[in-house]
Specification:
Number of domains: 2
Strand content: 15-25%
Order of helices and strands: HEEEHEHEEEHHE
InterPro entries: PsdUridine_synth_cat_dom_sf, PsdUridine_synth_TruA, PsdUridine_synth_TruA_a/b_dom, PsdUridine_synth_TruA_C, TruA/RsuA/RluB/E/F_N
Number of strands: 8
Largest sheet: 6 strands, mixed
Low-confidence stretches: none
Strand order of the largest sheet: 2-8-4-7-6-5
Mean pLDDT: 93
Catalytic activity: uridine(38/39/40) in tRNA = pseudouridine(38/39/40) in tRNA
Protein name: tRNA pseudouridine synthase
CATH architecture of the largest domain: 2-Layer Sandwich
EC number: 5.4.99.12
Oligomer: single chain
GO molecular function: RNA binding; tRNA pseudouridine(38-40) synthase activity
């Protein structure tokens, strides 16, 4: 938003972002809309000009504009979204945090202990699919306490994934996994709670059926406090319109 003010708009520019993330969470791609009112006699920016100008003023920040396009006046980056997809990156095979590759630091979660029982996690993920009251899988604060807790999970997959430069340390027997969740919208910290619960299943601390029981409790206080996944492994992958 600060970079956009350098475009010398007639009135201050306000960004409307499609999704907010917790501190420490990453975004491979996010979406926003903005209105730019130029002074009389100044032509409207085209898409290439807008991308180039914004990225120039963002050159020292860890953010880049990848694409810009004109939309109708009724479009809203948040409310027009059909779905949002998040991925959570897991690393197994680390007995201690010091074994996490330095290039992956703060970009994945490496739960300690033996390898995860991925088939059990995949069985448990099936209970999350569909429309449910996800009260147990949300964190409450003053802003979110009055949000409707019903959400529809369209996708909950667990797949092997390559790590960054992982072919250079194959001898270390590290394995990367990605959990992918898709829904029109998510509750506060819902993805981190779902991920943490599935990891607990993979560690043998919960059974797949206990995920179903947690859903049926419909109580955020029923969620095991030790099962919250940290923010570092979570990425907003895409917003679909």
């Amino acid at each position: 938003q600060k970079a956009a003010q350098n475009l010398e708009p007639l009135v201050p520019i306000k960004f409307c972002i499609s999704s907010r993330t917790d501190s420490g969470v990453h975004a491979l791609c996010n979406s926003a809309h903005l209105d730019i009112q130029r002074p009389p006699g100044k032509p409207a920016f085209n898409e290439k000009q807008l991308i180039r100008c914004l990225n120039y003023h963002l050159r020292h920040e860890p953010i880049r504009i990848l694409k810009a396009q004109r939309v109708s006046s009724s479009f809203h980056a948040r409310f027009s979204a059909l779905s949002r997809t998040y991925i959570y990156r897991l690393l197994t095979g680390c007995a201690h945090y010091s074994q996490i590759p330095v290039f992956e630091r703060d970009l994945c979660w490496a739960p300690t202990g033996p390898s995860l029982d991925v088939p059990a996690m995949q069985d448990a993920a099936q209970f999350l699919l569909g429309t449910h009251d996800f009260s147990t899988f949300r964190s409450l604060n003053s802003r979110t306490a009055f949000q409707p807790p019903v959400r529809t999970i369209l996708q909950a997959d667990i797949q092997p994934s390559p790590g960054f430069l992982s072919h250079h340390y194959e001898n270390r027997r590290l394995e990367f996994w990605e959990l992918q969740f898709k829904s029109r919208s998510f509750l506060y910290r819902q993805v981190r709670r779902m991920t943490g619960a599935l990891v607990a299943v993979g560690q043998g601390k919960l059974t797949p059926h206990q995920i179903k029981e947690l859903l049926e409790r419909k109580d955020s206080l029923a969620f095991p406090s030790s099962a919250m996944a940290p923010p570092s492994g979570l990425f907003l992958k895409s917003v679909e319109y």
